[in-house]
Amino acid sequence: MELVPKDIEMYLSEEAKQLIDNKEVVVLDVRTPEEYQEEHIPNAILLPLQELENKLNDLDKEETYIVVCRSGNRSTQASEILINNKFTNINNLTGGMNNWSYEIEN
User: Fold this and answer.
1) For residue 29, which phi and psi values (nearest 5 degrees)?
2) Catalytic status, residue 69
3) What digits encode the pLDDT tens for the residues 62-95?
């Protein structure tokens, strides 16, 4: 199992749902456009992992993000990229969309 850098907070879907409902986080979906179209968390911003480094200037470094992918691997990679580029409030959805049992859009 991959170790998660200590700067990244991990949230179970129940905890993430509460943060999202309270508008305390912006959901950043790092999956492919095809995966996003199939299903995504409402209001999630699509920014595929392979495009992330080229789009860092489009993101607010002070914003609090919860990063989401299918299973947690790509979101961990994306979170590391964000942390390494001076983003300070990065969170990760444990288990990704595979563990998300709440409302989705498609």
Assistant:
1) -95, 115
2) yes
3) 999 999 999 999 999 999 999 999 999 999 999 9
